[in-house]
Each structure stands twice: as structure tokens, then as C-alpha cells.
Write a structure and sequence with these properties.
The chain is mainly beta. The chain is built from 5 helices and 16 strands. A hairpin with a 4-residue loop joins strand 14 and strand 15 (360-370). The longest helix has 11 residues, at 2-12. It comes from Pseudobacteriovorax antillogorgiicola.
């Protein structure tokens, strides 16, 4: 019922304005409202009914869930931002196809200290990378990058506070988090998480380039796979959900680059990110314990070419892993957690996007992934509708 009301609300919001989305930077004073509705059809799901989606060799969590076969409402969300002088209030509520509830995705308060410095606090997406701030509907694809699904649980959203230095060519920040979202998990020790990032941009008339780096540090206390253990089992029988938890420290570092340039009527975009995630601690079930060290490396790259309202895109994700467990129960716990695998996961996507009008994007994607013993090919087709109005 609430889901239906939410979708209806999206359809009757004001329809003035032409911009695609609501940015959180450099907006005019007053109220801006953005609505988005995305739906897609998937020819298949990478898992069978009553099966967990686990990429062998990796801890997983967050909101990393696979596409379901058939038609799905991928995203439905409303965001509002109000700015008065140095104060900005931003909130975003949304529904995602993998869940059956509407949730507050972000709710934050910002204060502009100077023309280039601001402070924000609340529930927020991490700013350490562009990919973490984007929804699937903000990209030319209908699926999510496999590397972000594994390393960040699709995206990192947490309660926290941050300090941002944002000039015309430099964007740096320090973010402090409660550490209650994957890959962290707040426990009795009270430890949180933090990250620091910096990006440098070069802008010319026909060519733009941004390069950056970031570092994240977080701890987990009795972290479980919350995708299936927090009251949302997503159609999976509780009897098949393994119980284990991880306690320890996780450090993630990354380097990224994005560039775009034009050649006549053609516009090209290239994006790449290399991530390294290292965890150290222990893994337990109800009776057994083993020390564990993990190292994950992820590479995600995208290339696209646009001609007027048409856009062709290619995305490549490749991950590598190394798990070291010690103790009498090491092998049993590794099998329980799905940490034993004999190949690195790879995902390749080709996408076509057509901008039907100022607010509507139509998309089709061919996705090929290989991370178990065989490979999966999926066809996805759908649309993304955006609208922004300002008052």
C-alpha cells in the first residue's frame, strides 16, 4: 500500500524545469524537488529461488542484491533541498525493488562556512568517490558495478559529519561515521569509521579531467550479512541462511579518474577506479572461531560515446581476492562463509541509452558475469524518469 502511494506521488509532482536530478552543490536559494522512477525487465537472475547471492571468495553485505527475473521497480525516490543563506537542508526518501519498504536514504543539514568550505551532518552517502554517490539510474546501465556490490555493499551510507573543501578545481574532505554500515558494524567497543579523500580537476573548452584518491578505515563488531538477517530475508528461507559473524578492522583505499572530451558531434567519457580492501580479525559461528585476513582488489572501468540523444557504453569489473584463515575450524568456517573459490569474478556490460525527452531515458543492457563455475548472460531493458522543479 505504501509503495503504491509513493509511486503515485512521484507521478503527480510538479513538472516544471528541465534538469536531470538534484545536485547538492551550487544550487540556488529556495526549494528544489527532484523525483525519479526507474523500472526494468531482466531476462534472468544469477541465483535460483530460495538461494543466497554470494560471490565465492568474498564477504558480502550492505544492499548488494541481484536482479530478479521479470519486471521490477528498480528505484522510486523523491529528494528535496532547501537553501537559505548559509544553511542547507537535504532529504531523500526512496523505494528499491529489493526491499518492500520506503526508507530515508539521506537526511542532512549543511552549513556554508565560506565560499569554498562547508560542514554537513546527518545520514549521508560518502563523498569519497563519484560511483558511491550515484544511483543505478544515474548511469547508462541498469545493473550495478560488481566491484561496488562486493567491496562497499553497493554503496556506503551512514550517519556522520564531514568537512568539505570544494573549490573550482579541488574537492577534498574528511568524513567521520558512526561505523554502523557495511563494511563496518558498530559494536560494544564504540569504534566508528572515517575516510579522507581529495580530487583535482582540470577543465578546458573541449576536455575535462578529474583524478582522485581516498582512504577509509572502519571496524566491525559481530558483523553479519545484514542482507538476509535484519528482518528482510528477500524470499530466502531462514533455514538456508548460514550464521557467522566477523569482528575486526577494514581499510579500503582507492584511486580514480574520470575524463570527457568532444570530437565534433561526438562526446566521449572514460571512468576508472582501482580499489584495495584489507580486513583483519576473526570469524565465528556459535561454537567455533578462526583468525582471518582478507585482501580484495577491484577494478571498475566504464567507457561511453554519445551522439546527440544516443549513447553506447561499456563497463568492465574484475576482482581478485586472497583469504588467509588460521585455527582448527578454519576450513569449516571458510566453507560456511563462502570464502573458498577457484576463480576471480568478472562482469562485462554493454549498454545503449536513448534520451527520449528532457526527463525520460530508455535503456537496454547486455550483462555477462562469471564468478562461480559457469557464466551468466542477462538482457535488461528499462527506463529512468527524472524531474526537478525549483521554487
Amino acid at each position: 500500500m505504501y509503495r503504491l502511494l509513493f509511486v503515485v506521488l512521484l507521478s503527480i509532482l510538479p513538472t516544471r524545469g528541465l534538469s536531470h536530478g538534484l545536485t547538492e552543490r551550487k544550487v540556488a536559494e529556495g526549494l528544489s524537488v527532484m523525483s525519479n522512477l526507474s523500472s526494468s525487465f531482466s531476462s534472468r537472475s544469477p541465483i535460483e529461488q530460495n538461494q543466497l547471492w554470494v560471490v565465492p571468495g568474498f564477504f558480502m553485505g550492505g544492499e548488494a542484491l541481484p536482479q530478479q527475473r521479470g519486471f521490477n521497480v528498480s528505484e522510486a525516490r523523491v529528494a528535496a533541498q532547501y537553501r537559505e543563506g548559509s544553511i542547507t537542508i537535504y532529504g531523500k526518501a526512496g523505494y528499491h525493488g529489493h526491499d518492500d519498504a520506503i526508507e530515508w536514504e539521506e537526511a542532512k543539514l549543511g552549513y556554508l562556512v565560506s565560499s569554498s568550505t562547508r560542514v554537513e551532518a546527518g545520514k549521508m552517502k560518502g563523498r569519497f568517490s563519484f560511483a558511491n554517490q550515484r544511483h543505478g539510474s544515474d548511469t547508462p546501465f541498469l545493473s550495478y558495478p560488481l566491484s561496488y556490490d562486493i567491496i562497499w555493499g553497493r554503496h556506503y551510507v551512514d550517519d556522520g559529519i564531514r568537512l568539505i573543501l570544494d573549490t573550482a578545481t579541488l574537492d577534498c574532505g574528511l568524513e567521520g561515521w558512526t561505523g554502523n554500515r557495511f563494511p563496518s558494524q558498530l559494536g560494544d567497543d564504540g569504534k566508528g569509521a572515517y575516510d579522507i579523500y581529495c580530487r583535482k580537476s582540470i577543465f578546458t573548452e573541449q576536455w575535462n579531467l578529474t583524478v582522485g584518491t581516498y582512504y577509509y578505515n572502519g571496524s566491525a563488531s559481530r558483523r553479519v550479512d545484514e542482507r538476509y538477517t535484519t528482518g528482510h530475508n528477500h524470499g530466502v528461507d531462514a533455514a538456508v541462511i548460514p550464521y557467522y559473524y566477523f569482528s575486526g578492522k577494514t581499510e579500503i583505499s582507492g584511486v580514480l579518474a574520470e575524463t570527457d572530451f568532444t570530437l565534433g558531434s561526438l562526446k566521449f567519457e572514460l571512468q576508472g577506479e582501482l580499489m584495495n580492501s584489507e580486513s583483519q580479525g576473526d570469524i565465528r559461528d556459535t561454537t567455533r572461531i578462526s583468525s582471518i585476513q582478507t585482501r580484495y582488489q577491484g577494478l571498475s572501468g566504464t567507457a561511453s560515446a554519445a551522439y546527440h540523444s544516443h549513447r553506447l557504453s561499456f563497463r568492465y569489473d574484475h576482482l581478485r581476492f586472497k583469504n588467509k584463515l588460521e585455527g582448527a575450524a578454519a576450513t569449516d568456517l571458510a566453507e560456511l562463509a563462502g570464502l573458498i573459490a577457484n576463480q576471480d569474478p568478472i562482469a562485462v556490460s554493454f549498454g545503449y541509452q536513448w534520451q527520449a525527452n528532457s526527463d525520460l531515458l530508455l535503456k537496454i543492457e547486455w550483462l555477462k558475469s562469471k564468478y562461480i563455475s559457469d557464466q551468466h548472460e542477462t538482457i535488461l531493458a528499462g527506463f529512468s524518469w527524472f524531474h526537478t522543479t525549483s521554487r
